[in-house]
Amino acid sequence: MKEYKKLLVVLDPTAEHQVSLKRSIELAQKNSSKITVFLSIFDFSYEMTSILSSEEREAMRQGVIDQRKAWINDLIEPYKSEGLDISPCVVWHNRPFESIIEHAIENECDLIIKGTHEHDKLKSVIFTPTDWHLIRKAPQPVLLVKEHEWPVSGKVLCAVNTGDEDQAHQSLNNEIILYGQYLASKFNSELHLVNAYPGTPVNISIELPDFDAFTYNESMRTQHEKQLTEIASSHSISSEFCHAREGLPEDVIPELAEELDAELVILGTVGRTGISAALIGNTAEHVIDNINCDLLTLKPEGYKSPLES
Question: What's 6-145's CATH class?
């Protein structure tokens, strides 16, 4: 894995508090990182003004860009005076997620950081279409943050899939744990691993009356606990921080995150798009919908974004 030396921070011009910027400062101070504070803006009315020449429209666009850049400079000035390497970038683009990913690829950023919205009444995280596009299509790790502190001695939860022996999945498991250990070491956090495994299929119990569901469940539990302990041991993680639980990942992972009061959940996503995503779905995306803390998503090694040329 790469260290977080180049951070791309996505601002929300509608938010009063820029949680992504705050989190990036925490990371940069512990990693000596370079931060690019990024804003993608677009106003369709500027493109439709037929009474203006193309040069006048360009001047208007540039005026808005300069205005926003001045706003960002005011935000980051205190951090620059502290010696942090931090600079603004404002682009005019009608599809924010594309401009974010393109900038991250062109500038070889190590991490994309973006704030999430919180539902006021439900107190749960809401992921926007831009968030989903980043999760699915950005080749870099994407850190989605909410409004809260990362306390020292907090908890980081890594979601792994030990039941799949596919080499790509095993490689992704290792990457998830390495990222977890890296962040846990920086914030003196406690690292936990979770693996969800399926229970007894209902149809088997119905079709085979003599089927011993209890023995089957015990066998599955033992197998997954052993596999999880083995992968933990290979990373020098104690078995007391391993959680193999029966159930669907979209239920197990958010429940354990809440139980542990985890600050961060790390999981892998295959980044399916188009028809395959609609038909097959993505386990990670079902999990993400139910998580109410910071989230770091990673792609498998060799993943190529549909936006890469």
Answer: alpha beta
